[in-house]
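Input record, target 12 of the design panel.
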């Protein structure tokens, strides 16, 4: 991480100060909140002084970036705004931005058949590298970017080498490809290109030696054989056959699609219809619309990304679709929709490459010319959407990595729904995270009355009771009201009683043959996706499913140490199977608590009994300590071993 003021390099200070600048430079022009800076620099190991540390580092950066500024004067380069900081520099003075733009131009030139222009641009791209990206910079943001940019650099090397081979300049790439293979020995495409370059230089024996070395390495490290492309090239070399200079044959057929004025360019309109009876969510819709409007109105190449997260069945998809349908007029180049299948309820989960295949097909790329490599699909997708105002809705995302490759550049907007808190997407990609909670009691009753029609129109006591039972979860409310309508021969006051038995409540919120409409099944999908340790914690918390629970109580139930306990509770909270309370405790949403109690039964009875004994003993000791302190009019000092 280096910076210059004019021709003079400035001293950027200690590593964490440079880490702050790295994050702000990565999102030049955007406001980055203090919370995101802390997450990016410290990750999960956050000291109590982190916020003060951010202010100190910002002050240090202002001194070196604006040396002529008076001590109390405002900085024109690093400004305070809206609870965060913004680096006010043109994006094109950041070499990473220049690299990304240059790469897109090189891809475009190659697709349009300008091989000479593409090679010049690729060489300009690679000339921007002066060592490892984010070298010596601490923190999760730097670590993720370091990995991502290394992968992107190798992709550019591969594309440059492919075009050099197409131009018949194989002798000039052997040394660079050999160095790249030494850096990334498991990257098969680099080895394929190196073998072909050597073969075309009449160095058949050296090319075959690369294959032998690759085969030995893959067997030793991964227990696998080389892929089909490497094996086929090996056979071609053995047979002395002519081999095409580049297997990237997808460029020419899609070149016409890259023209911004192409009349044949598809304008997809893929948004699913919205459900009947949408109520409430005015605050969330207004907040999202305001965020999107503010971001889109800014200049620059940053794409607006908003993620709606929340517990299963809370209505994330419906909120995103309501907003998307409101905004269609703002996106004349089309609206794309992909169900990423993160929960696995509606089929298999899509990889980023599979999702890109769907998106590219929607944008007019024929299957016969679809790139096979993920990096190539990403580049083509971003090239096709370059300069276009497109709305992309990604439903049911599993992870930030699944989403990241699907974010185009420029004036497009991406709406994402997920059961997970995608913090990494906020840190690295500047996404807005919107947590969606249950409906209020009034909104729940309004939804029930609307859906129940004549059956519930004059049954306020029934609707309010059912609203409280379902605790504002739209999926449960919709399931319950359909059950009341189906029991048309039973008075509503009698029909609602079956939902009052908490032990059988999830049984009554079951829809046969439709997993996505079955409350227990949607909870189970979230539970099944948990890491083993977190699933273990979830089951033990099910032994105490009501009321708030502290870290100490959870540690006693699951028989884990406090640090591990806090980490696992945070995993459950980030996946919306648990809620953080304002007092630093945790609690279940009522219906999740019922499901957790069912899952607790998976543990052996002896283990459950011991957990209850541990918790009861701690609670009894705490009560005794409190009573004794009250007698002596003293504050109890409680030590948890």
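The sequence produced for target 12 reads:
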């Amino acid at each position: 991480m280096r910076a210059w003021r004019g021709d003079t390099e400035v001293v950027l200070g200690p590593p964490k100060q440079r880490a702050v600048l790295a994050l702000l430079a990565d999102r030049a022009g955007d406001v980055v909140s203090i919370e995101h800076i802390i997450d990016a620099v410290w990750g999960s190991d956050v000291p109590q002084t982190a916020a003060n540390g951010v202010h100190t580092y910002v002050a240090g950066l202002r001194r070196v970036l604006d040396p002529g500024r008076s001590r109390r004067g405002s900085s024109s380069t690093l400004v305070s705004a809206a609870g965060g900081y913004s680096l006010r520099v043109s994006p094109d003075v950041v070499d990473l931005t220049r690299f990304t733009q240059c790469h897109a131009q090189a891809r475009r030139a190659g697709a349009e058949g300008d091989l000479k222009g593409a090679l010049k641009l690729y060489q300009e791209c690679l000339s921007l590298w002066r060592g490892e990206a984010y070298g010596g910079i601490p923190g999760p943001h730097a670590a993720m970017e370091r990995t991502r940019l290394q992968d992107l650099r190798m992709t550019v090397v591969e594309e440059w080498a492919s075009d050099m081979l197409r131009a018949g300049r194989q002798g000039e790439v052997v040394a660079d490809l050999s160095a790249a293979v030494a850096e990334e020995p498991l990257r098969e495409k680099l080895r394929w290109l190196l073998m072909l370059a050597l073969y075309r230089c009449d160095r058949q024996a050296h090319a075959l030696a690369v294959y032998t070395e690759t085969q030995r390495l893959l067997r030793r490290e991964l227990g696998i054989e080389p892929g089909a492309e490497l094996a086929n090239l090996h056979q071609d070399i053995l047979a002395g056959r002519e081999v095409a200079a580049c297997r990237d044959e997808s460029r020419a057929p899609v070149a016409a699609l890259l023209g911004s004025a192409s009349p044949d360019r598809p304008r997809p309109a893929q948004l699913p219809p919205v459900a009947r009876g949408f109520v409430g969510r005015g605050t969330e819709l207004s907040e999202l619309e305001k965020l999107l409007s503010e971001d889109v109105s800014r200049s620059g190449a940053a794409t607006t990304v908003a993620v709606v997260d929340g517990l299963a069945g809370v209505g994330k998809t419906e909120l995103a679709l309501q907003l998307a349908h409101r905004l269609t007029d703002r996106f004349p180049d089309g609206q794309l929709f992909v169900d990423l299948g993160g929960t696995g309820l509606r089929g298999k989960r899509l990889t980023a490459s599979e999702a890109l295949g769907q998106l590219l097909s929607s944008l007019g790329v024929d299957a016969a010319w679809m790139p096979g490599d993920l990096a190539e699909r990403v580049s083509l997708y971003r090239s096709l959407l370059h300069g276009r105002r497109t709305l992309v809705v990604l439903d049911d995302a599993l992870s930030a990595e699944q989403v990241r490759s699907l974010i185009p550049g420029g004036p497009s907007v991406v709406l994402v729904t997920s059961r997970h808190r995608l913090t990494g997407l906020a840190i690295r990609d500047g996404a807005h995270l919107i947590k969606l909670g249950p409906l209020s009691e009034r909104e729940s009753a309004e939804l029930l009355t609307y859906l129940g029609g004549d059956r519930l129109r004059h049954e306020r006591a029934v609707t309010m009771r059912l609203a409280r039972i379902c605790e504002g979860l739209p999926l449960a409310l919709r399931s319950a009201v359909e059950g009341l309508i189906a029991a048309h021969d039973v008075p509503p006051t009698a029909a609602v009683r079956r939902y009052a038995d908490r032990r059988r409540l999830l049984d009554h919120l079951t829809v046969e043959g439709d997993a996505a409409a079955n409350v227990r099944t949607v909870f189970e999908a979230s539970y099944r996706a948990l890491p083993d340790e977190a699933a273990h914690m979830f089951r033990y918390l099910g032994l105490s499913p009501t009321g708030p629970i502290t870290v100490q109580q959870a540690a006693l139930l699951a028989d884990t140490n406090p640090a591990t306990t806090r980490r696992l509770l945070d995993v459950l909270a980030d996946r919306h199977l648990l809620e953080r309370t304002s007092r630093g405790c945790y609690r279940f949403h009522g219906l999740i608590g019922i499901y957790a109690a069912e899952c607790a039964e998976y543990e052996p009875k002896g283990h459950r009994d011991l957990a209850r004994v541990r918790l009861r003993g701690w609670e009894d000791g705490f009560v005794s300590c409190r009573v004794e302190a009250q007698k002596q009019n003293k504050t109890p000092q409680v030590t948890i071993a």
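The longest strand covers residues 391-397.
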